[in-house]
Amino acid sequence: MTLSLLVLEPYYGGSHRAVLDALLPHLDVKCDLLTLPARKWKWRMRGAAVTMAARVRQLHAEGRRWDLIYASTFLNLAEFLGLAGNAVAGVPSVVYFHENQLLYPNRHTAEWDLQFPLTNVTSALAADACLFNSRWNLEGFVAGIPGFLRQFPDHVPNGVAEAIAAKSAVLAPAFDSVPLDAVEPTRGRRPRIVWPHRWEHDKAPETFFAAVQTLAREDLDFEVAVAGQSFRETEQAMAEAAATLGGRLVHLGEPEGRGAYAALLASADVAVSTAQNEFFGLAMLEACYAGATPVVPDRLAYPELYPAAFRYASDEGLVSTLRSLVLERPAPGAARNIAEKYTARSLAPRYQEAFEKIAAAGRN
Question: Among 10, 81, 126, 287, whose Cα sits 20 to 30 Å from the Cα of 180?
Answer without folding.
Answer: 10
